[in-house]
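Consider the tokenized backbone below.
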């Protein structure tokens, strides 16, 4: 079920439709609220979050594990009961599943089977998914691997087809459904924008992509309800767009991803070579692959290759301080060989920030956060992007903890309007930022 803002209108028919503002929209207004057709918690989150409501285990309690398949977990008996009508169809298949390198494909296999089971249970929903656009030119070998996994696991049980006289979906039909997923499905994220699972939201899929977007998407994890929010003021007649991909990559990688997955070339203001907005981004994007002054192409490649081995060692280490030391070495080496905004340096800084936070090394985490934000704002994200708000809030907290009150106030003040427009006035992030900002002002006198 989808509820549209009465100030917007869907113009045209799939696959050429677009969503347009029929009246001016203010920053923070909700464009669309939609309950998903289907969702699936990603296997990396199994055992960490409830497979039904995506919640974590209650305090001092463990998640309840399905005693039969031993893969799905629940935060309560209520969630387990409510999920049984869905899970019972895949529980037997999962209970006999032998891990063998196909785990990254498992989520897609389960979700595509869930869609085909809608044929008998909820045919109207099934038809809605079938009407989603797909791009046959984007077929990849992995699609056939997933189709094979669906059949080898027995995720589409014969008893269903026998009872209804429906023929089981062919590999071709499964591949076509996977192409619909690629072109339309959403990644469900938490308040920190960490990926948790996948969802089918047919109304939300009507919004087109733009690298210079005016909307962002958030979720109520308990119900997986999707909210599409304006992150800037929108004029009457403007098309409402959100980004289909993450921008933390080079322009070439971004365009390749859009072409190979969604079947189009972007012509938004950021990608239009004749527009001033493109010129500003293009200048900064060159830094993402540039060496430091005095370093040649061979030199930068050698440093990146050598330091990549340190990152692999760090990932395999059980000692947090050893991990911290290895990632620090990587950042130091790449800082000498790469432009300060180089993509591979940015990636290493992001890893160092995470490890330093885990190790309680707040000064290191703060210094990396400062540099990460510079690269994000110059090369990747427009200033209103929700990830900018999260990182600014984090930086404010680090400054605050280290006694840098003036810097904390500045970061909180930059973060607050972003959090307000994305999360809303009453969200814990927004309220927390307001409280810390007030506290910082009091400490500053």
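A designed sequence for it:
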């Amino acid at each position: 079920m989808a509820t549209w803002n009465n100030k917007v209108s869907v113009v045209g028919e799939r696959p050429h439709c677009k969503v347009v503002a029929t009246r001016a929209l203010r920053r923070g207004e909700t464009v669309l609220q939609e309950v998903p057709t289907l969702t699936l918690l990603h296997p990396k989150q199994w055992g960490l979050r409830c497979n039904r409501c995506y919640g974590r285990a209650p305090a001092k309690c463990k998640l309840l594990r399905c005693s039969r398949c031993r893969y799905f977990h629940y935060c309560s008996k209520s969630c387990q009961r409510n999920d049984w009508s869905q899970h019972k169809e895949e529980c037997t298949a999962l209970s006999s599943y032998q891990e063998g390198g196909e785990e990254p494909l498992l989520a897609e296999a389960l979700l595509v089977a869930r869609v085909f089971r809608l044929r008998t249970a909820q045919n109207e929903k099934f038809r809605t998914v079938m009407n989603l656009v797909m791009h046959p030119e984007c077929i990849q070998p992995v699609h056939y691997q997933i189709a094979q996994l669906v059949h080898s696991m027995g995720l589409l049980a014969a008893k269903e087809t026998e009872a209804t006289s429906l023929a089981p979906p062919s590999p071709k039909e499964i591949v076509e459904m996977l192409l619909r997923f690629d072109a339309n499905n959403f990644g469900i994220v938490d308040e920190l924008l960490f990926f948790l699972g996948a969802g089918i939201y047919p109304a939300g899929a009507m919004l087109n992509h733009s690298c210079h977007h005016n909307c962002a998407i958030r979720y109520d994890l308990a119900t997986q309800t999707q909210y599409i929010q304006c992150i800037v003021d929108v004029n009457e007649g403007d098309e409402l767009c959100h980004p289909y991909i993450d921008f933390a990559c080079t322009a070439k990688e971004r365009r390749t991803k859009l072409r190979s997955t969604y079947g189009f070339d972007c012509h938004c203001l950021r990608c239009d070579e004749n527009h001033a907005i493109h010129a500003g981004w293009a200048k900064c994007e060159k830094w993402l692959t540039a060496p430091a002054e005095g370093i040649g192409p061979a030199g930068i490649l050698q440093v990146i290759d050598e330091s990549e081995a340190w990152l692999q060692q760090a990932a395999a280490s059980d000692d947090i301080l050893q991990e911290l030391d290895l990632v620090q070495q990587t950042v130091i080496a790449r800082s000498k060989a790469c432009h300060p905004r180089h993509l591979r340096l940015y990636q290493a800084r992001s890893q160092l920030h995470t490890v330093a936070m885990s190790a309680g090394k707040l000064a290191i985490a703060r210094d990396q956060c400062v540099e990460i934000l510079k690269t994000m704002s110059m090369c990747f994200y427009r200033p209103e992007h929700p990830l900018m708000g999260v990182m600014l809030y984090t930086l404010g907290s680090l400054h605050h903890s280290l006694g840098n009150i003036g810097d904390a106030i500045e970061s909180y003040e930059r973060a607050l309007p972003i959090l307000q427009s994305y999360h809303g006035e009453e969200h814990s992030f927004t309220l927390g930022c307001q409280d810390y900002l007030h506290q910082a002002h009091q400490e500053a006198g």
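The mean pLDDT is 94.
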